[in-house]
């Protein structure tokens, strides 16, 4: 089980937001290694509110507004459609008045709020990706120069390597820093080896070929 804190967005196509983007990596790897695996997400709708506090909220609301419907009370804390979904998953009638709601029902709703389970069927296609995984194994790259350990004169940067980080600017920082290092070191490598390159004359100053 992997825990990913952060904001989560419920959309028309599924889950999005920073937490979903981070979790998508584990989904992709799991489905790659075990095609057809049954994956589920367990969502804590409000992490800062413990189970006991949710139950106490409902109890206080029952004392203050006994004729209020459970659905209406929950919609004070959640978007309407999410509140309806939580009640459906908890198997509690949202039209039940708080005065008639049993402790078991209130606890069922509170438990669902802390453990809202959804099936995971996959991730969006590559063209919808924010960050990609996969690429050249970093063990095959010299981290000081970004040069390949297997092929001299070959340098790597950014997402061509098998490296990715959390959303929030980290991936573009990786791209810029590795790009700067790879570009600088590639220039040094070219200067040090230009006399041996067939692209240069024996003097090592002018490219071979006609001058435009």
From TrEMBL:
Protein name as catalogued? RsdA/BaiN/AoA(So)-like insert domain-containing protein
Any Pfam family? HI0933_like_1st
Q: Which UniProt keywords apply?
A: FAD, Flavoprotein
Residue ranges occupied by any RsdA/BaiN/AoA(So)-like insert domain in the UniProt entry: 4-131
Return the InterPro entries for the record: BaiN-like, BaiN-like_dom_sf, FAD/NAD-bd_sf, RsdA/BaiN/AoA(So)-like_dom
Q: What is the lineage of its organism?
A: Bacteria, Bacillati, Bacillota, Bacilli, Bacillales
Essential cofactor(s): FAD
Q: Does the keyword Flavoprotein apply?
A: yes
Q: Which domain of life is it from?
A: Bacteria
